[in-house]
Amino acid sequence: MQRAQISALGEGALAAAPQLIGIVPWGVVAGVAMVAAGLTQGQAVAMSLLVFAGSAQLAVLPLFIAKAPLWVMYATALVVNLRYVIYSAVLAPYFERLSRPWRALLSYIMVDGMFALFAGKFRPDDGRPHKHWYFLGGSLVMWTAWQIASCLGIFAGALIPREWSLEFAATLALIAVLIPLLFDRAVVCAALAAGAVALAAAKWPLNLGLLAAIAVGVAVGLAVSRLAPENARGEEGGG
Amino acid sequence: MSESWAAWALIVGMGLVAFFTRAVFILPGSHLKLPATAERVLRYAPAAAIMAIILPDLAFTQGALSISIANPKLVAGLVAFALAVATRSILLTIVGGMLALSAARLLA
Fold first, then answer.
1. What is the domain range of residue B13?
2. B41 and B82 together in one domain
3. Can you give the residue ranges of every domain in chain A?
4. What is the per-residue pLDDT across B41-72, written as a single tens digit (0 to 9) for each?
């Protein structure tokens, strides 16, 4: 590695460090929640490494406990992860000159916080050749912190008594993740409509009420954004 | 054994889903400006999904809808919502919510 690469790597790592305050407790909760949902410790570690998407993991666990069909759980994970499709579209021009393994690595390791930092700091064609090292440095810090925190939750979580209801902490973490996503009136309406349908359709078979709730929520959000257009675009946050 | 099969199918499938959503434009290196409506759908859907998971978990106790202050999870969830809005801190939201759950259970 050259000096400039190492310095970009370190610069990214430093920029990402303040976000660890949010990542660590969230990782611990995800670890605890996976074990509480009935995954073995090995399975929980594998999920943490392979999926590496906290909100999708936390969202799917209640469905796993309720023995929902696999395709419903896949669909839920897909929907919760859809925001990454936006990030992927935004970041693609930044990374288009990199090799395929690089692009695969940076895709796998991408998280909300690093996307926001990176897209705020660089332009795709600003002539700075080492920006992918910056992205990698920051992402590696977050990835490592998340994996360690998650393992802490997985192995310590098994020792915590059931009466503490620690699985409830997963729902609380989802609440904390949800708030930054509610960036304008239309998305608030989308979430409220989805919540109402989810309550009404909670007894539908195969957890189909959840998918109906998402569909209605998106439709309501689009309708509100059409009827009352708003320029406000909050920043992205959370996980 | 079937339980274990389901868990591994979930883990591997979710791993593929998570990688797909992140890599979908980066890996092929495509240049695409998402249409505004597509971007809206992609932003609204995750918020809708997360709310649709949270609310039933708070409002149902032992399989029955319970929208009342006698439902400790609902009380704790409302406290957590308030904390999340006020502090934007995951840590404070979780700690405050768990304390509220314990308090609400003692009082219920």
1. 1-31
2. yes
3. 3-167, 182-239
4. 988 999 999 999 999 999 998 888 999 889 99
Contact yes or no for B43 and A187 at CB 8 A = yes
Report yes or no on whether pTM surpasses 0.90: no
Chain A CB contacts of B101 below 8 Å? 165, 168
pLDDT digits (tens, 9 = 90+) for A16-39: 998 888 888 889 999 999 998 999
Same domain, B37 and B55: yes
Q: Total structural domains in chain B? A: 2
Are residues B72 and B85 both part of a single domain? yes
Are B69 and A163 in contact by the 8 Å Cβ rule? The answer is: no
Interchain contact, A168 vs B34, CB within 8 Å = no
Contact A92 B77 (CB under 8 A): no
Taking contacts as CB-CB distances below 8 angstroms, the residues of chain A near B33 are 89
**Confidence label for A239 from pLDDT (cuts 50, 70 and 90):** very low
Best mutation target among A90, A168, A233 (most B Cβ atoms within 10 Å) is: A168
